[in-house]
Design goal:
Radius of gyration of chain B: 18 Å
Radius of gyration of chain A: 20 Å
Largest sheet of chain B: 2 strands, parallel
Oligomer: heterodimer
Strand order of the largest sheet of chain B: 1-2
Number of helices of chain A: 14
Strand content of chain B: 5-15%
Number of strands of chain A: 15
Largest interface: A-B, 14 and 12 residues
CATH topology of one domain in chain A: v583 fold
CATH superfamily of one domain in chain A: v583 domain like
Helix content of chain B: 40-55%
CATH architecture of chain B: 3-Layer(aba) Sandwich
Shape of chain B: elongated
Order of helices and strands of chain B: HEHEH
Shape of chain A: globular
CATH class of one domain in chain A: Alpha Beta
Number of domains of chain B: 1
CATH class of chain B: Alpha Beta
Strand order of the largest sheet of chain A: 5-4-1-6
């Protein structure tokens, strides 16, 4: 070998464990996200062209263009999206992560998370809730109105409260949430509650209209997933400094765009290795079934990449009521993930496993060697644009992206 | 050749670890024999192309 893989991986693991993600502010994508442009729409997963986008991603793009005032109708938005005047790039290429369709446009508010140890930043929009929401491909009037309220009222008020509070230690909050029955991907009730506990006194201290403050608190209270858009950029800025380490086989990003699933490997630079997005095995809302489902989509799998989410399900048995399976399955999933990871997290621990650290740092070589694929839990969007969320479940990534990555890794590093 | 050790095996209760096909373990269990099933799969699921790649990494 031209490199010492073990040493390279030890370095990557050390960087991941040293991360100190903190919520430092709220801005807009146009102001904060590197490389953001007015005619650029960010989306989840590896690169995908408009003509190859799945239904929910097209729906979210349509909604994004209506939200920005660039189009007045679905037809106008579709014409514009396909005209060549609008550019599409992955969130991941801009230090950003987006759940489900992951659509980010110029004026959307974004969280700013900084890894205090390595000074890199990551961004995510604010979570809209479940059901008929943009990230699941819905773009009706209620969706656009909610997005505008979030930009005009929610984000400015939270920004003022956050300024009063000061930086929020996300590593500490995520650690606490994992000990309270969350896993940080599809169960975020504890994390959202902890966030409200931190921010509520500072909301109360603002010189703001009481009705506005009430709306903000009611929105936070009604949205168990609010914390997801904080865990995701926390995981993103945890993993980014572990990228581009010569000889490391650690997987530093996994992401799906509803058409393809992709991974990035530390020692293989910015290249995506992709395979077809999988079908989610899950529980459906009344009136929907598997025939209605869009394939696997979203950047939220950055949580599993960083050792929480599906990898921490043993600590979140209640999640099976949302994604299916039994509490025993949740424990088995976590235990299996120790087979394909390089370390146990020293901050994120699982009480039900005697406070064992979550399985962290997926090793490409171990995945191929054991044929054990990362466990991912996820929401399910309707396959048609404009409908929204129809369920949640579990999904496995396509094997071939790991096989192709291993081949590239061997070709690059073996003598 | 000292055959006492191997002969002793046939006078003791069987203690069995089964690797691979579960059917062997199930058959023994059906005869009230205690057996531990070991989760084992060939590297890379037996895929020769992948095994060759892993060998180039010294695995």
């Amino acid at each position: 070998m031209r490199v010492n893989i073990e040493e390279a991986n030890n370095r990557a693991v050390s960087i991941i464990l040293q991360a100190k993600p903190a919520l430092t502010g709220i801005s807009t994508a146009g102001e904060a996200v590197p490389g953001m442009r007015k005619n650029l729409i960010l989306h989840s997963g590896p690169p995908v062209a408009w003509e190859n986008m799945c239904g929910p991603m097209r729906g979210a793009v349509i909604g994004g263009l209506i939200y920005e005032g660039e189009a007045a109708s679905q037809a106008e938005a579709e014409d514009l999206a396909g005209s060549g005047d609008i550019e599409f790039e992955p969130c991941h290429h801009h230090g950003t992560v987006g759940p489900m369709a992951g659509v980010v446009t110029w004026s959307m508010p974004v969280w700013i998370i900084e890894n205090k140890r390595f000074k890199n930043r990551a961004y995510s929009t604010l979570n809209e809730g479940l059901g008929k929401v943009l990230r699941y491909g819905a773009f009706s009037e209620e969706v656009i109105s909610r997005l505008k309220w979030m930009a005009e009222e929610l984000a400015p008020i939270l920004k003022k409260a956050l300024d009063r509070h000061g930086e929020l230690d996300m590593k500490s909050l995520i650690s606490q949430a994992l000990q309270m029955g969350d896993e940080g991907h599809n169960r975020n009730r504890a994390g959202t509650s902890l966030f409200i506990r931190e921010i509520a006194p500072h909301l109360a201290g603002l010189n703001e209209d009481r009705q506005k403050l009430r709306r903000v608190l009611e929105f936070l209270h009604s949205n168990d997933h609010f914390f997801l858009n904080l865990t995701m950029p926390s995981c993103k800025c945890t993993m980014d400094p572990a990228a581009n380490i010569e000889g490391s086989s650690v997987i530093v990003a996994m992401a799906r765009n509803g058409t393809e699933f992709g991974i990035r490997v530390s020692g293989l630079g910015d290249r995506w290795f992709t395979g077809p997005a999988g079908v989610v095995d899950g529980l459906y809302l009344p009136g929907f079934n598997g025939d209605d489902a869009s394939p696997d989509i979203g950047d939220s799998v950055i949580t599993e990449t960083a050792g929480i989410g599906g990898f921490a399900m043993a600590g979140a048995p209640a999640i099976v009521k949302f994604v299916g399976g039994s509490a025993g399955d949740a424990v088995s999933f976590t235990q299996q993930m120790y087979e394909i990871t390089l370390t146990e997290n020293d901050s994120y621990q699982i009480p039900a496993l005697d406070f064992r650290g979550t399985p962290t740092a997926i090793d490409l070589i171990k995945v191929v060697e054991t044929s054990i694929l990362p466990v991912i839990n996820t929401g399910i969007a309707h396959r048609e644009p404009g409908v929204g969320m129809i369920g949640a479940g579990l999904v496995k990534p396509p094997e071939n992206c790991f096989h192709d990555a291993l081949e590239a890794f061997v070709n690059r590093y073996s003598e | 050749m000292d055959t006492r050790k191997i002969t002793a095996l046939f006078t003791q209760d069987l203690r069995i670890i089964n690797m691979g096909l579960v059917a062997f373990a199930d058959n023994l269990k059906g005869q009230d024999v205690e057996v531990v099933q070991m989760e084992w799969r060939p590297p890379a699921g037996g895929n020769e192309r992948l095994i060759a790649l892993l060998e180039r990494l010294g695995r």
